[in-house]
Write a structure and sequence with these properties.
Order of helices and strands of chain B: HHHHHEEEEHHEEEEHHHHH
Number of strands of chain B: 8
CATH class of one domain in chain B: Mainly Alpha
Structural class of chain A: alpha/beta
CATH topology of one domain in chain B: MetI-like fold
Number of domains of chain A: 2
CATH architecture of one domain in chain B: Orthogonal Bundle
Helix content of chain A: 40-55%
CATH topology of the largest domain in chain A: D-Maltodextrin-Binding Protein, domain 2
Largest sheet of chain A: 6 strands, mixed
Structural class of chain B: alpha+beta
Radius of gyration of chain A: 26 Å
Strand content of chain A: 15-25%
Largest interface: A-B, 53 and 48 residues
CATH superfamily of the largest domain in chain A: Periplasmic binding protein-like II
Distance between the termini of chain B: 51 Å
Helix content of chain B: 55-70%
Number of helices of chain A: 14
Oligomer: heterodimer
Strand order of the largest sheet of chain B: 1-2-3-8
CATH architecture of the largest domain in chain A: 3-Layer(aba) Sandwich
CATH class of the largest domain in chain A: Alpha Beta
Radius of gyration of chain B: 29 Å
Chain lengths: 371, 393
C-alpha cells in the first residue's frame, strides 16, 4: 500500500512538472518574440556600431595577413596592403585618425563568425560578395573595392595553357572559400576532371604545391599575383609560375559589415565610394587641401563637405551620415584616392588596373555622387 | 491530533518524512533542470536569430556544390547530407584500419619494451618517448609534409610496374571478382565446414589414442586443397586488378591517397606508443609466479608469453585500450591539416558555405558519440568475455 502511495505521488509530481513547464512556455514566448521582431536596423533598442566605434576611439578591422599586396605581414607584425588602407580610410572618416585602428588577422573560415560575434567592426579581407553571404551568413557588403576573378596558377614548365588542358590533374585550394565551389563548377564546364586537394591555410598549400602534390593552385587572381610575386627563389622565383588566362568566376571583393546596422553600413559604404569618386574628380592627397579651401566644382565641394560659391548662390550639402561632413578631406589626406592606393599596393605585383579602372577609362569602378 | 495519530501510526510528519522529502527534492530538481534547459535553448535561439541565421535542418537537402576527393560515390550535385555521410565514412575508414594497425604495432612495442635484448628494449623506449611526448598535430604535419612528400613523383615511383608509391598516393594490385565468384564463395564455405569437421575428427583420434593430432595442419591442408580445387574447376573466378598509371593518376587496383596514408601512419604511430605502454604495464601486472610456473613447466619464453602471461594481461589491458581507440577516432578529426576530407573538415566547409554552425556542431557531436559508443560497446563485450569470473557486471 505504501508503494502504491509513492507511485501515485511520483506520478503527480511528473504531471505537475509538465504542467508548470507548459504554463511557463506560454507566458514567456511573447517576450522573446517581441525582441526578435524588433528589427535592430530601426536602432531603437540596438546601438549602432558607429556609436560604439566613436565611443571606443579605435576601429577594429578584420584583415588577411597572408596575401602580399592585399593584407600581408612580412614577419614584422605590421600588416599592410590594399585592404588595410581601406581600414585606415574608415578609421579616418569616423575618428579622424588613420592610426586609430586595431588590425585583427583572421582566416577564411572564421571571418564571418568573428564579424557577427563583434570581434571586429568591419571585415576588409578580399571577401567575395555573394548572395548566400548576404542571406545565410547575415553580412552586408559595401561598395566593391576590387573586381577580381578566380584563376589557376601552374608551373611555367608544365605546358598547360588553359584549364581545359588540366584533365586528370590535381589542384590545391583553401577550404571555406568560394574557390572550392567555383573550381568544381568551372572544371565541369570545361569538362576537365580535376581533383581538389583542400587545405586549411595558404602556407600548407604552398608546401604541397612546391612538393608537387598538386599541379595547379587556384584562388583569386589578385591573391595569386601577390603569392607569385613573393615566390621563393629556391623554387625558381616568380618566373617559375604562370597564371592562366581563364577567368573561372567573378569575384567582386568588398568590405563587409554585419546585417541590420544601416548607420554603420552607410559610413563604410560612402568612405569606399568617396575614395573612388576622389579619383574620378581628380582629387588626390597632393591637392586635397587646396581643393578644400577653393573647390573647382560643386561635386568636389559636396564630396569634401565645403560650401561652393557659385555665381548666384552658395551650395552646401549635409550628408547626415553621422560623421563630420568634411570627413573625405581627412581620408584623402591620409590615404590618398583609389588610384593612389592601387598604385601603392597592387601595381607592384604586376597587376594592371584592367577592370578596376574608372568607368571613364574603360574599367567598371563607378562612384555614386555626394549630394 | 493528526500528529499524534501519525506518531501513533509510526510515521513522522511529512516535513520530516524522508521518503516524502526525497520525492519532493526530485521534483524541485527536475523543475530546475527543465527551466534552466529551456532558458539555454531560448537564449540560443534568440542569439542565433539575431545573427541572421536559424536553427532549421532544411539546409541538409540543398546541393553541396563542393567536391570531396575520396570516399564513397559522390558528386557536387549531391546533397549536403550526402557529403557529410561520405565524410563520416572517411572517418570510419581511417579509424577502423588505424585501430587494427595500432593494436598490432602496440603489442609489438609493448613486448619489445620488456625484451631481454638491451638494444631492442632501448629502441622501443625511444619510440615510446618520442611519440608520446610529441603533439599529434606535429606528428601528422611531419609525416605528411615531410615523409609523404619526399616519396617519388607520380611518374617515377613504380614497383616492378605492378604497384606504385608516389607522393600523390599509392596503388597496388587487389583480387577482383569475376564470373563464378559467388559459386566459389559457397565452395569456400563448404570447405570451411569440412575443415572444421576434419579438425574435430583429428581431435577425437588424439583423445582416444593419444597420437599427436596435427589438427591445424590437417584442417588447413584440407581447406586449402578444396579451395584450390574448386577455384580451378570453376575456372579462375578471381583476377588480379593491376593498377595502371594514366597521366598523373592511377586506374585499377586499390588506391590509397597520400593524405589517407599520412593520416593513417601518423595516427597509428602515435596511438601505438600509448597502447604499447598499456600492454607493458598489464604484462608487468601479471603475478611473477605465473611466469615462473610456466618456466617450471618447460615452456619457452615465447610460449610463456603466449599461453600464460598475455591472456591474463589482456584482461587488465582492455579498458585502457578502449580509451585509446576512442582517442584515435577523435584524433582523426585533425585530418584537415593534411587535406584528408573527414567529418570535421567537410563539416567546416559546410559551415562556411551555409553558416549553420550550431546544426553542424550537433551533427558532429551525435556522430562522434555514435562512433565512440560503438567502439565502447564492442570493447565492453570483449571485456566481459575475458574477465575473471565474479568480476563480470
Amino acid at each position: 500500500m505504501r508503494r502504491s502511495f509513492f507511485a501515485k505521488l511520483t506520478a503527480l509530481a511528473a504531471v505537475s512538472v509538465l504542467v508548470l513547464s507548459a504554463c511557463g512556455r506560454g507566458e514567456d514566448e511573447p517576450e522573446p518574440q517581441a525582441e526578435e521582431t524588433t528589427d535592430p536596423g530601426q536602432g531603437e533598442e540596438q546601438v549602432s556600431l558607429l556609436q560604439t566605434v566613436l565611443d571606443r576611439g579605435t576601429l577594429n578591422c578584420g584583415v588577411n595577413n597572408t596575401v602580399p599586396g592585399f593584407g600581408f605581414d612580412p614577419g614584422t607584425g605590421e600588416i599592410d596592403g590594399f585592404d588595410t588602407e581601406f581600414c585606415r580610410a574608415i578609421a579616418t572618416a569616423v575618428l579622424g585618425d588613420p592610426t586609430a585602428i586595431e588590425l585583427v588577422p583572421i582566416d577564411a573560415e572564421e571571418r564571418f563568425n568573428a564579424l557577427r560575434a563583434g570581434e571586429y567592426d568591419v571585415l576588409v579581407r578580399n571577401t567575395t560578395w555573394t548572395s548566400s553571404r548576404d542571406g545565410t551568413e547575415g553580412v552586408a557588403f559595401a561598395h566593391v573595392n576590387f573586381y577580381d576573378g578566380q584563376a589557376m596558377m601552374v608551373r611555367a614548365d608544365s605546358g598547360y595553357e588553359k584549364v581545359a588542358d588540366m584533365d586528370g590533374t590535381a589542384a590545391c585550394v583553401t577550404t571555406g572559400t568560394t574557390t572550392e565551389l567555383n573550381l568544381a563548377d568551372y572544371a565541369a564546364q570545361v569538362e576537365a576532371d580535376i581533383e581538389a586537394v583542400t587545405f586549411a591555410e595558404n602556407p600548407q598549400l604552398q608546401e604541397a604545391f612546391i612538393a608537387g602534390r598538386c599541379d595547379g593552385w587556384t584562388s583569386d587572381r589578385s591573391q595569386l599575383a601577390g603569392i607569385r610575386s613573393a615566390w621563393p627563389g629556391s623554387d625558381g622565383g616568380p618566373e617559375a609560375l604562370v597564371i592562366l588566362d581563364d577567368v573561372m568566376s567573378k569575384e567582386p571583393l568588398a568590405p563587409a559589415v554585419v546585417d541590420g546596422d544601416s548607420d554603420w553600413y552607410d559610413v563604410v559604404n560612402w568612405t569606399v565610394n568617396g575614395l573612388i569618386l576622389a579619383e574620378e574628380l581628380g582629387v588626390d592627397s597632393g591637392n586635397v587641401a587646396q581643393q578644400a579651401s577653393n573647390p573647382d566644382s560643386p561635386q568636389i565641394a559636396a564630396m569634401l563637405g565645403v560650401p561652393f560659391e557659385a555665381a548666384t548662390e552658395t551650395l552646401e550639402v549635409d550628408h547626415g551620415l553621422g560623421i563630420d561632413n568634411t570627413f573625405m578631406q581627412d581620408v584623402i589626406a591620409a590615404v590618398g584616392n583609389y588610384g593612389e592606393i592601387f598604385d601603392r599596393h597592387v601595381a607592384p605585383l604586376g597587376v594592371e588596373r584592367g577592370v578596376n579602372a574608372l568607368w571613364t577609362d574603360g574599367g567598371i569602378q563607378y562612384a555614386y555622387p555626394f549630394r | 491530533m493528526s500528529q499524534a495519530a501519525a506518531v501513533a501510526a509510526g510515521r513522522p510528519p511529512f516535513w520530516r518524512d524522508v521518503r516524502i522529502l526525497r520525492v519532493l527534492w526530485q521534483i524541485v530538481f527536475s523543475v530546475a533542470v527543465i527551466v534552466i534547459g529551456r532558458e539555454i535553448y531560448l537564449n540560443l535561439a534568440f542569439g542565433v536569430k539575431q545573427q541572421g541565421v536559424d536553427l532549421s535542418w532544411s539546409f541538409l537537402n540543398s546541393q553541396a556544390g563542393f567536391s570531396i576527393k575520396e570516399g564513397l560515390d559522390y558528386s557536387r550535385a549531391d546533397s549536403i547530407a550526402r557529403a557529410l555521410i561520405v565524410a563520416g565514412f572517411n572517418t570510419i575508414r581511417i579509424a577502423a584500419v588505424g585501430i587494427v594497425l595500432a593494436s598490432l604495432l602496440g603489442l609489438v612495442i609493448g613486448v619489445a619494451r620488456l625484451s631481454r635484448n638491451w638494444l631492442v628494449r632501448k629502441i622501443a623506449q625511444a619510440y615510446v618517448d618520442l611519440f608520446r611526448n610529441t603533439p599529434v598535430v606535429i606528428i601528422l604535419l611531419f609525416l605528411y609534409f615531410g615523409v609523404v612528400y619526399s616519396l617519388p613523383r607520380v611518374e617515377e615511383g613504380s614497383i616492378f610496374d605492378v604497384a606504385f608509391v608516389s607522393l600523390r598516393g599509392t596503388a597496388f594490385p587487389w583480387p577482383r571478382t569475376d564470373a563464378g565468384a559467388g559459386v566459389w564463395g559457397s565452395c569456400l564455405l563448404a570447405a570451411l565446414v569440412i575443415a572444421w569437421l576434419v579438425r574435430r575428427w583429428r581431435t577425437r583420434i588424439n583423445e582416444a589414442t593419444g597420437k599427436p593430432h596435427y589438427r591445424f595442419l590437417w584442417s588447413f591442408g584440407v581447406f586449402l586443397a578444396l579451395a584450390l580445387a574448386s577455384y580451378f574447376v570453376i575456372g579462375s573466378p578471381m583476377k588480379m586488378d593491376v593498377p595502371q598509371r594514366a597521366g598523373l593518376r592511377f586506374t585499377g587496383g586499390v588506391q590509397l591517397s597520400a593524405e589517407y596514408f599520412g593520416l593513417l601512419v601518423g595516427l597509428t604511430l602515435y596511438t601505438s606508443a600509448f597502447i604499447g605502454e598499456i600492454i607493458r604495464g598489464s604484462i608487468l601486472a601479471v603475478q611473477k609466479g605465473q611466469k615462473e610456473a610456466g618456466e617450471a613447466l618447460g615452456l619457452t619464453p615465447f610460449q610463456q608469453l603466449r599461453f600464460v602471461v598475455l591472456p591474463q594481461a589482456m584482461r587488465i589491458a582492455i579498458p585502457p585500450i578502449n580509451s585509446q581507440y576512442q582517442n584515435l577516432l577523435k584524433n582523426s578529426s585533425l585530418g584537415l591539416f593534411v587535406a584528408y576530407p573527414e567529418l570535421v573538415g567537410v563539416g567546416r566547409t559546410v559551415i562556411n558555405q551555409e553558416g549553420r554552425f550550431t546544426q553542424v556542431l550537433v551533427i558532429w557531436m551525435l556522430s562522434y558519440l555514435a562512433m565512440t559508443l560503438s567502439i565502447s560497446t564492442v570493447m565492453n563485450g570483449v571485456n566481459r568475455l575475458v574477465a575473471y569470473r565474479g568480476a563480470r557486471r
